[in-house]
Amino acid sequence: MASKSALFIINKFAGGGFQPKVEGKILDICAKHNIECSIEFTRDRGHATVLAQEGINKNFNSIIAVGGDGTVNEVARALVNTEQIMAIVPKGSGNGLSRHLGIPLAFEKAVENIFTGKVLRMDTFTINDRLSLNVSGIGFDGHVANLFGKDGKRGLIGYAKLTLKEFLRFKNFPMTINIDGKEQNSNSFIVAIANSSQYGNNARIAPLASVTDELLHLSILKKVPSQMSIPFMIKMFAGQVHRSAYCETLSGKNIIINTEQQQPFHVDGEPTGYDNQFNIKLQPHSLSITVPQQTSKY
Ligand SMILES: Nc1ncnc2c1ncn2[C@@H]1O[C@H](COP(=O)(O)OP(=O)(O)OP(=O)(O)O)[C@@H](O)[C@H]1O
């Protein structure tokens, strides 16, 4: 059994919102497994990190992020580089890391997984000293994340609408990439830095990525001509983006990206502003995470 006592950190505002019956379901499943449990709700951005730190101090066996990739990221900030076990109950709009790890999206099954799953040490990375677990990006995806964050309307449809509107405006930008000492110039639309394979909703930007391979996977995308954008999206959702003529892939551990002008970026889908130098560092096997027993590829 992966857990004897569990702290659930719930972001009521993630994904489609919160249903009060969730609390009762958590208590029932914990009682069934004879687990002592506590439930806390986040009050604001960043609060999940504070709650997770308190959970470590109180010696909970498992600390569980109930939310999307943003909540998972905040909880992990307190847990990274410790032995503390984390689990996820996916409740976000994208749930990229959960999908990559094969964590069930159905609420009860995800809670069961905390007590029946296995624990693995996954890689994480930092981008300009900010922790990232899943996929971070510079360029167009950062631009969309920055706007989407302000917009307030979450969800796949809202995201798709905003992406289409902004796509025509945003242009390729020049940059230099130094990856483990090797330097190259590029003119790119998006640089996705991937630990897991997907942004969320099965949009697989780095199909070959693994969270245990001690590598970061870069997908460097050129702007796709409008008439090719639908076939390109189909390739991405089919897990074939790395075979596209518009995608170059690189992998490594330590990456420095310099851009001529300030570029928007995001960390695990959360808007993070603008910069023109990005220092990216892999942290191998730095976080303990509970995954289903049957997951064989991560
Ligand atoms: N009480 C709160 N009020 C407002 N925002 C909050 C609160 N608690 C957490 N947040 C913020 O909500 C944001 C979104 O959360 P999260 O990423 O978990 O959900 P999501 O965006 O729906 O899912 P995904 O990232 O998987 O698409 C996070 O940046 C988090 O800091």
TrEMBL record:
<keyword id="KW-1208">Phospholipid metabolism</keyword>
<dbReference type="GO" id="GO:0016301">
    <property type="term" value="F:kinase activity"/>
</dbReference>
<keyword id="KW-0594">Phospholipid biosynthesis</keyword>
<keyword id="KW-0547">Nucleotide-binding</keyword>
<feature type="domain" description="DAGKc">
    <location>
        <begin position="1"/>
        <end position="131"/>
    </location>
</feature>
<dbReference type="InterPro" id="IPR050187">
    <property type="entry name" value="Lipid_Phosphate_FormReg"/>
</dbReference>
<dbReference type="GO" id="GO:0046872">
    <property type="term" value="F:metal ion binding"/>
</dbReference>
<keyword id="KW-0808">Transferase</keyword>
<dbReference type="Pfam" id="PF00781">
    <property type="entry name" value="DAGK_cat"/>
</dbReference>
<dbReference type="InterPro" id="IPR045540">
    <property type="entry name" value="YegS/DAGK_C"/>
</dbReference>
<dbReference type="GO" id="GO:0005524">
    <property type="term" value="F:ATP binding"/>
</dbReference>
<dbReference type="GO" id="GO:0008654">
    <property type="term" value="P:phospholipid biosynthetic process"/>
</dbReference>
<keyword id="KW-0460">Magnesium</keyword>
<dbReference type="InterPro" id="IPR016064">
    <property type="entry name" value="NAD/diacylglycerol_kinase_sf"/>
</dbReference>
<keyword id="KW-0418">Kinase</keyword>
<dbReference type="InterPro" id="IPR017438">
    <property type="entry name" value="ATP-NAD_kinase_N"/>
</dbReference>
<dbReference type="InterPro" id="IPR001206">
    <property type="entry name" value="Diacylglycerol_kinase_cat_dom"/>
</dbReference>
<dbReference type="GO" id="GO:0005886">
    <property type="term" value="C:plasma membrane"/>
</dbReference>
<protein>
    <submittedName>
        <fullName>Diacylglycerol kinase</fullName>
    </submittedName>
</protein>
<keyword id="KW-0443">Lipid metabolism</keyword>
<dbReference type="Pfam" id="PF19279">
    <property type="entry name" value="YegS_C"/>
</dbReference>
<dbReference type="InterPro" id="IPR005218">
    <property type="entry name" value="Diacylglycerol/lipid_kinase"/>
</dbReference>
<keyword id="KW-0479">Metal-binding</keyword>
<keyword id="KW-0444">Lipid biosynthesis</keyword>
<keyword id="KW-0067">ATP-binding</keyword>
